[in-house]
Structure formats: structure tokens, C-alpha cells
Amino acid sequence: MDAVGQCGDLVEVARRAGTRHGTVERRLDRLDRAVGLPLTLRSRHTARLTAAGTRMLIAGRRFFHQIDLAARTHIFGHGSEAVEAPEVLSIASTEPLLEEVVEDAAASLGLLLSIRHESPHQVAAQLAGYHVDAAYTWSLDSPRHSLERATRTYDVLDDPLWVILPRDHPLAGRDKVSLVDLREEAWVSETGPSSEILVARVFQAAGLPAPARLQVTGASVARGILRRGDAIGLGSPTHPAVLEPSLVRRSLVERPRRTTSLLVDPTIVPRALAGRLAALIADSHLRRFVEHHRDLLDERWWAQWYAEQTGHLARCAGSVPEADAPPGPAEVRKLDVEDLHLLQAVARHGSINRAATVLSISQSALTRRIHRLEQALGARLLLRSPRGTSLTGPTRQFLVQLTRYEAEFRDAAIAGRTGDRQLPHSHWPARHSAPVAAQLSG
Fold first, then answer.
1. Are 380 and 319 in the same domain?
2. 261 with 94: CB under 8 angstroms?
3. Which of 69, 159, 239, 432 is a good FRET partner for 15, with 20 to 30 A between their CA atoms?
4. Entry's Pfam families (predicted)?
């Protein structure tokens, strides 16, 4: 109906809806039957809204706007959490964020990134000094940040390290090399978030003394030194690839690794938005790893690591096809209201099993629909345990508001039909609003 009101051409309406012309006709007919009034007047190729259709569309837009506000208040943030997502996020990064991350954030999250590229210890200072609202950095241990400013940490990628050698190096012919054999080499290294030297810490973790010839510099200078072949260094899936015919990349026997993380101020960046941004960054790194280092996947260890990372990303961030990608905060009105009704059914009956029985659908199908809704909202809605399923506090509050707004929508649609053929209230699908509200408020 929204597309009909904007353009009126049924071919264009179908294109905007991502479906076929015949499907559009059937859905508009179904809507007319559900309401009991003609909401559109159609010819073979065009359609326009009737007076009743215009009133229904206005009521519907208000309903979805109210759902949006309820989701922002109860799902995307509460208490000291951010409710509104920033239009522009100021972020300090230890590495240049990939262009596809910036573009994907703008396209799918409606978020513009203003990026400052700093060394790891400067990134922490930028965040602590309120110069930025988020930071993308790394740590060799679990992230520990002694910042007075409140922050929340989102893991991006478990980042294994490899060694970069000149192609004519004596060890370049091996598939894997050991740090023990590289102690006498000239190394180049960057400084970490806590002023720790990356290469020195990697050797220390392996029980070895730091190399005697170790040059410490910034990441960009280190890349130049590696490209010239003046020293050897460490690379990883999150580092921009140093692609040079004179260099080779070899796995390390010790398998050193680090963790990359996104730190945000939770009063500025809503939890769901931060989680999806971290997932975008991780996905870009993994895609670039496959593009530039596919040969490493022939090694069993790297193949297993890649499978673990992509699996974790799919579980935590919801790796769905682009056509089904969850909408950003500004697009919450694309939520499937029927999925919200299924969530109401779970709340009403107390478990997915009982709700599935009453709804006459399979438990697995209901679970998938609820999971899709969680992905779309970017938040966990149900708490699952061996004792059963319960709703989170924010979910309960959200459903109370949903029940209220649905009742307002029905009342507004019926009351606005002055002069039109009336429908009995029983014509509208029963949603058991009162019992749900009573149960949730209790």
C-alpha cells in the first residue's frame, strides 16, 4: 500500500516489494478481504488508494512508527544505554577500516563512519579523552582497558599471526617455521595498546627471549620496511596484506594469535548497532583473507580456524542472505508483524513447545521465526534454559507496548470509515491482547 501511494504503477510496486506483479495483486486483494473494504482501485497496470486505503495507510504508518519507538526504547537500549543511534560515529582505529566496511555500514546500518587512524596506544588515549565514541584495536590477551570512561567491548576476530619472509630467505621453502629459528633475524614490530611490543610479546609467550635486532615503529613504516625486505615481521588476517612478489608468508609452529575488538561508549552506540558493526568488520576481514590468502586454507589448521570464525560470525551476527538482511534501526518498519504475533504466542503459552502446538506449526519452524525476529531487532528476546523459555525484561515491556499499539491501530482503522460499510469488530483477527498484557504486566 505504501508503494501504491507513492507511485501507482503496479510494475514498480512489484519491483519495490521484491515480488511479481501477480503476487502484488493477490496481496492487495487479501488486504481488501481482511478489512472488508476496497483499499485500492486498480486497472491492469495502475493502482491508487481509495479514501479508506489512505486512512488505513496513515494508521499503519503510525503503528509502525510506534513499533520503531518501542524497539528503540526497550530493545536497542534502556537505562544508561543509548536509545538513538548516532548518524555519524567517530571511531579511532589501529588499522585502516576497509572501504567495504564503511560502505556496508552506510548501506545496511544507516551509519556514517568518521575514522581516525592511530597507533594502538593512541587509540586508547583517543577513546579515554572523549575525542571519539568508539575504537577498533587489538590485544594479545583478553581485552583489559582501565579507562575511566564507560565502554563496552565486542570481540571482532580471533587473529592468528604468521611471519613475512623475503622469498630468498633460507627458511622460505618450508611450509611452517618456528620462532626458535628466527631469533637471530632482524625484526620490525609495532607497539601495542599498552605500549607492549608485538614481536617481543609473541616471543615471550613462546618462552623465548626477544630478538636482539628488533626495530619498533608505526604500522605504516613497518609495512614499508617489510616491503623492502630489510627485516621480517608478523602479519595476520586483520592486517592489510603486504603483497609483494619478493615476499612470502609462512605459518608459525607456535601459532601465536591476538584478539581484535570494537570498544564503544554504550551511552552513544546502542548495543545492537555495535554488535552488527563488529560483525561487519569481522566479515570483511574474513572475505579479504580468503581473497588474498586462499592458499593457507590448504593447511588443515588454517582451514579449521576459518571454519570456526565463520561459524561464530553466523551464530552471533546472523549471516543471512543479503535479500533477508536485518534492517537497521531506521528501517524497523520492515519487521514482519506476524513474527511479532508468534512472539506474543510464546509469551502467552510460556514456551516454544506449547506455542507451536497451539499454532499447529513445528517447533523448529517457530524457533526459526523467533530467531529471525531476534536478528531483525538485533537483540536476544528469549532466555532459553533446560527449565524452559522465558522472556527478557525488555521483551516483556516491548510486547506490552505492541499490544497497546495494535489495539489503537484497529480502533483507528474502524473509526475512520465514516460513510463506509462497517465491519463487526470480530472480523479482525483475534490476538488475545488482554490476556497477553495481563500476563506480561503480572
1. no
2. no
3. 69
4. HTH_1, LysR_substrate
Specify the pTM: 0.55
Highest mean pLDDT among 59-68, 136-145, 341-350: 341-350
Give the position of cell 503496479.
10
- Domain count within the chain: 4
Residue 431 lies in a domain: yes
- Exposure on the CB side of residue 137, measured as CA atoms within 13 A: 32
Measure the CA–CA gap between 11 and 19, rounded to whole angstroms. Answer: 10
Between 434 and 4, whose confidence is greater? 4
DSSP 261-311: EEEE-TTTS-HHHHHHHHHHHHHHHHHHHHHHHGGGGGSHHHHHHHHHHHH
Assess whether 151 and 169 both reside in one domain: no
Looking at the fold, whether 151 and 264 belong to one and the same domain comes out as yes
CATH of the domain at 155: 3.40.190.10
Q: Indicate if the pLDDT at residue 145 is higher than 60.
A: no
The closest alpha carbon to 283, from 255, 243, 323, 311, belongs to: 311
The verdict on 312 and 428 lying in the same domain is no
Taken as a whole, the chain contains a residue count of: 442
Rounded alpha-carbon distances, angstroms, from residue 7 to 4, 40, 46, 185, 188: 6, 13, 9, 68, 61
Cα–Cα distance between 191 and 189 in angstroms, integer? 7
Answer yes or no: are the C-beta atoms of 275 and 328 closer than 8 Å.
no
b (16+ CB within 10 A) / e for 305-331: bbeebbeebeeebbeeeeeebbbbbee
